[in-house]
UniProtKB/TrEMBL annotation:
GO cellular component: cytoplasm
UniProt-listed Pfam families: NAD_binding_10 (PF13460)
PANTHER family: NAD(P)-BINDING DOMAIN-CONTAINING PROTEIN-RELATED, PROTEIN YEEZ
InterPro entries, per the entry: NAD(P)-bd_dom (IPR016040), NAD(P)-bd_dom_sf (IPR036291), NAD(P)-dependent_oxidoreduct (IPR051783)
Name of the protein in its database record: Oxidoreductase
Organism: Tessaracoccus lapidicaptus
Amino acid sequence: MPRTALVTGATGYIGAALAPVLLDDGWHVRVLARSPHKLDPAWRDRVEVVTGDAGDFADVVRALTGADVAYYLLHSMDGKGDYRARDRELAATFAEAARDAAVGRIVYLSGLHPRGPLSDHLASRVEVGEILLGSGVPTAVLQAGVVLGAGSASFDMLRHLTERLPVAVGPRWLRNRIQPIAVDDVLFYLRSAADLPPEVNRTIDVGMDERMTYIDMMRRYAQVTGLRPRHIWTLPVLTPGLASHWVGLVTPVDAGIARPLVGSLIHDAVKDDDDARALLGEPPGGTVGFDEAVRRATAGIDPHWWSRTLRGGVAAFGLSAGLAVVSTILSVTIARLVRDRRRGKAA
């Protein structure tokens, strides 16, 4: 009999990509979904669908019963209220239900982060991981940085910033260190985590070997996709809140997702150790490098669409540079107004 894997968040980016990987590997895949019609039709008829809400204890127990491994791929980044509180409640419900259903293992995808105070987004991810690790069910919390893949919100933000801004003045977090990871490697590690021995209950850092800054990634993206060289400077006055407006002005990434993502980028996102190799193995051919990850992610994307839409490179350069200048002026002006108002109150 094939083993059973429950995949939550199956209508999201990682969950939708993981389900067919598990199916092709011989797993019986079950998904918990409030809206089954939103599941990918390419594999929807190959999985067992449990219609229910991840916030309802009975629904979660029903979905988890008989599962050998449960993938927790839920988050509440939607701009609708206190997502940290909602994530905490969802994780607590899932942890209790997994324990009651005697699930063999939980696998959760979290984010790389430094020690110390964190942004709301990363603090929430860490808190969810701690709740699951304390569930009494063996848990693997995989911690990843920017995921490079078509459809990833982090990649879409990188892509649109690079394609639309040949000249830019941005926030200082563009110089923070990051270890990105190709989505294919994320899926390999998630699949491998299902086979960890029961005594393994811990976080595991995953990522490619190369450490980069966001500026490095923008410049390399341009190089790999044949765009003109990008010229980028940073300003120390752009707070995460202001920087999210800067991103929102330039990219089509949903504000409810962009704000917490930008907030998390104020931190370095690098691995503390390389235990993933020993615990999860090595992806076939080794981890994918940045350039190859971009090539795979843009295989069905036209990086030059923006410039062609604006009737040639010169027009695109002028408009994009104008967007960068306008967004920078607006951000600096708002920052100064906020600073002056605080000074006035202090006086």
